[in-house]
Amino acid sequence: MDDSSGKMGQAELRKKVLDTELCTGCGACIGLCPYQATYRDQTIQLHQCDLNTGMCYAFCPRTPSDLDSLRKSFFDPLEATPEIGPVRGFYICRAADEGNRSRAQHGGTVTALISLALQEGFIDSAVVSESAEGFRQQSVTISDPAEVGKRGKSKLIVSHTVGEFNRISRGGSGKIGVVATPCQAFALAKMRLKPVEAKDNNIDKLQLVIGLFCGWALDWRKFTELLKNKTNLNEVTGMDIPPGKKTVEIYTKNETISLTGEEIDPCIRPACRYCVDTTAEFSDISVGSARLPESWSETRSWNQLIVRTSRGQKLLDLARRQGILVFREVPEGNLDELKKAAWEKKKLSLRRLIEKSGSEDNLLYLDHRDPVISRLLC
Amino acid sequence: MSILLEQNQDVPVLLLGNEAIARGALEAGISVASGYPGTPSSEIIESLSRVATERNLYVEWSSNEKVALEVAAAASFAQLRALCAMKQNGVNVASDFLLHLAGSGTRGGLVLVSAEDPGAISSVNEGESRYFAKMIEFPLLEPGDFQEAKDMTKWAFELSEQLRSLVMIRSVTRLSHASGNVRLGRLPENQAKAEFRYGGFILDPLEGLITSAPVVYKHAQQQLKLSKAREIFENSPFNTYTGPEKPELLIISCSTCALYGREAIHLLGLEDRVGLLKLGTTWPLPPNLVRNALSRAERILFIEEVAPFLEENIKVLAAEKATEVGIKIFHGKNDGSIPSVGELNPDIVIAAICTIMGIEYTAMDPQYEKKAQAASFARAPNRELTFCPGCPHRASFWSIHNALQMDNRKGFVCGDIGCYTLALLPCGYSTVKTLHSMGSGTGIASGFGKLGQFGLDQPVLAVCGDSTFFASIVPALTNAVHQRSNITLVILDNSGTAMTGFQPHPGLAVNAMGSQVPKVDIVKLCEAMGAKVELQDPFELEQTRETLNRLMEDPDGVKILVLRQICGLSPEKRAKKKYDMRIDEFLCLGENCGCNRLCTRIFQCPGLVWNKEKGKTLIDEVICAGCGVCASICPQGAIKSEEAA
Fold this sequence. Notes:
The complex is a heterodimer. Chain A is an alpha+beta fold. Chain A is built from 14 helices and 13 strands. Chain A is 32% helix and 19% strand. Chain B folds into 4 domains: 3-234, Rossmann fold (3-Layer(aba) Sandwich); 240-357, 3-Layer(aba) Sandwich (Rossmann fold); 392-573, Rossmann fold (3-Layer(aba) Sandwich), CATH 3.40.50; 579-643, Alpha-Beta Plaits (2-Layer Sandwich), CATH 3.30.70.20.
C-alpha cells in the first residue's frame, strides 16, 4: 500500500488523500505552513511544497496509521472494545440547566463540560466550531466559559478544528481543549505521538479532547445548493438527524423541512463513506445523541457519553459533583446496541474501501493486519 | 539636445534604427506623428515626442493602432505630412481602416512604419505585415541598413505625395533596435499649414471627398498608382546588385537579411561566385529589374524574414517571364534551405549556401565549440523571466492564484498583452491559461462566461492592464456586460503602458507631448456600462484575495475588480523605497517543514535571495524596491518592514 518512492510529503498527501476523496476536512494539515489552506470545508493546496516528508502527511488521519500503537499509547488496553474503542464508563446524561439545553443540539453535555473545564482551569482555551455566514461552520478558540453556550448547535458540516488548534497552539496559549469529530480526535492522537521532528512541542498543550459521535458530514457546496431551493439559508435555526429513518430535519423560524435519504446522499462528504470511527475512539470523553425507549421529543434532550481516560473521568466526576450534569439510568442493552451499530458501520466502510482499492489487502489508509480491522474482515 | 536635432551634416552620427527613421521623417518635414506603443517600434514616436516643441510637431500616443492611423490620415487629408508607427500586429488592428485608406488615397505624404519582430523576441506572434501591401495594394519599402532607414523614410513622403497613396516602411528588430552610422540631411523649416479642402469635384483627389467609394473606380485608381510605383522602382537606388556578372548562385534579399547575406558571402570568400540582389522596394516589384537579375543565374536563393513574401512574389514574376529568364532552381523557405520560422542570422545563411553549393565550412574548431558551450552553461545562471521587485502584478497574481486555488472549481484566467502576460510563467504563479492579442482575454472570457448552459462551472477570469483597457478591452467588455456573461475581469492598473517603456495612455493626465490633459476614469467608465465594479490596492493581499473569492462566487454577469497600484519602475516613484526590509534570521525557517522557502521558491521576488550557506533568506538591498509586500507572506513573520526615512 505504500508509495514505492517512500516519500511522505505534500505531493503524497495530494495523491493519496485529496485526489482520492479521502480528505475529511479535519484541518490537521492546516495552520502548519503556508502551502495548505482551508476554504469553506475544503482542504486546499495553495502552492507546491517539494519536501520529501512533512507534518501534513504525518498528522493526516487518512494517511497510513498504526492504530494499535495509538490505542496502546493513550488508553488502558483492559478497557478496549473493538466496536467503540476504550470504554472506561458509559452514561446517559444532560446539562442540568434547561436554558443551556435549549441552545444546544441535544442534551447540552459538551457545552457544559467545556464550560466547566475552562472555569476550573483544566484548560485555558477551547477550540470549538461555530456557525458562520452563508451556512458555514468555522473553528474558533474561546477562553470565556460563558461564550461556549453560543456555539452549541451542529450543522453537520465540518470545520477545520485541528487547523485552528495548530494555529492557536503556536502562540502563548496555555492548555488547550478541543471539541472534535472522530477524524479530528484521531489526527490529534497521531500528533501526540510526535511522528516528525518539530521545532517546538505545541502538541503538549493539548489537555482535553471531547469527541463527538459522527455518522457522516455534509459537503457545504452541495448541501447549500440543495437547501437554497427549499429555504432562505439565513432563516435556518438548526438541523438534526432523527434516529431510525434516513432523513435530515431542517428547522427554520416557521417550519421544519424534511430532506429524504435520496436528497441527502449525494450531499454527503465522500470521505465519510470510508470512516471506521463513529464514536470518536481517540478522545478523553465522547458524546453523542442518546437512544432511549421514550419518544424522540423526549430522547432528543439526552446525550450518551463514553469516558475513555482518567482525565476524562476526572472532569465528568466534577460535573456530577457540581450538579452541572444530571444522569439517568442506562437502559439495559443500550451499550450493546451502540456497539452493534458501530460495528456495522465499520464493516460497511471497509467494504467500500475494498471496492475503492480493488483489493482486500489494500485498505488505503488502514492496515488489514490491525487486530480490530482484521476481525472485521473475517 | 536630442541627436535628432543635429544640424551638422558633415560628420556621421550613431543612431538607433528607430531614431534614423524618426530623423528621416523630420527631414521630410512631417507635422504629425502618431502610434501605439509596441516593441520594436516605440522609440520612433518617443524620440519625435522629445523634439516636438523644437520641430513644431504634434505627436500622439493614440489609444490604439487603428485610431493612430486615423489620426495620421487626418493630418494627411489636411495636407500635412504625417507618420504613423506600430509593431507588426498593430497593423492588423489598423487593417480595416488601412483597407479603406488605400482605397481613398491620401493628400499630404503619409508613411506607415511597421517595425516587426521576427523570432518574437518581444511578441507572442511572428506575424508579417508585408502581405497587407500586396493584399490591400499600396507600396512597400524595406530599409536594409541604418542609412537607408533615414533616407528611405524621407523619400517615402515624396513617393506618397507623387502617388497620393500611403507608403509602408517595414523595419525589423535588428534594424530598429540596433545602432549604426548615419549621414544626416537638412532639417527643413516647417511651415506647413493645415487645411481640409472638400469643395471641388467629388472624385478630385485633392479637392473632393475622401472616401474609398465608388469602390471599383477607386480600386482601379489604386492599380494605376501601383503601375506608377513600378516604374519609379525600376530606377530606385534602394535596389542594388553586388557580385559577378554571372554568379553561380544569386541571393535575393531585403531588410537586414541582406546584411547577413553579405557577411556570409564574405566569410565564405565567395565574392566571385555569389551575387546579392538587395531589394528595398519590395511591393510592387519592378519587373524589369527583377527580370534582369533573374537572368544572371540559374540558382536563386531567397533570404528573408519571416514568411516567403519576396520568394513567392518573385517566383510569380519568374513564371510570367519564363520565356525571357529561363528555368530556374529556387531555394528558400519553400524548399527548406532557410527555416520558415524564427530570426535569421549569418550562420543560417552560411549553412544554406554551403549546402546548395556543396561547400564545407566550420566557423570554429568543434572541440573549441564544445568547450565554449560547456563554459557558458556553467557560468551563466539560469534566469527565468520575472516581474520587477515592487511590481504590483506579483501581488495581484499571488492573490488571484490563491483565490482560484481556494475556490477549488478549476477556475482560470484569460490573459492579455502587457507586463502581466508573464503570469503565464511561474513568476505569475502560472495563473494565465489563454493568451492571444490585445483585448482578446476579455473577448474570450466573454465567450467562456456564456458556456454555463453547457455545463461549464469553472469560474472565468480575465486580466488586462490600464493601457490595454483603452486599446481594445472596451468593445469586448461591453459585449460581456450586455450578454450577461458570468466573468470576473481584473484590471491591473499600474498607471502607465509599462511593458513598452512607460508611455502615457488615456487614463493618465499627461500625454506624449507632456501636456496636461483630461484623464478617462476607468472605474467610472466600467460603472457606466453597468458592471459591478470594485477598487482595491493589490498590495493588501488578504483583502484582495477575499474580494476575488467573493466576486467569483457571484454567478450573475460581469464583475470588475480594479487593482490599482503604481508600477514599480514608474518615474513618479523616483525609485524611492516606502519600506526598508530585513530578515530576522532567528525566525526564518528556511528549508524546513513549515516554510520550505516560500519567499524565494514560490513568491520569487528578485529582492529576496536564498543564502545557501546560512540556510536563510536575505534581502538584496540594491534590488529590493521597498514595497513591503513580502512581509505579509512569511509564515513566521521573519520578514520585517520599517518605514523608510
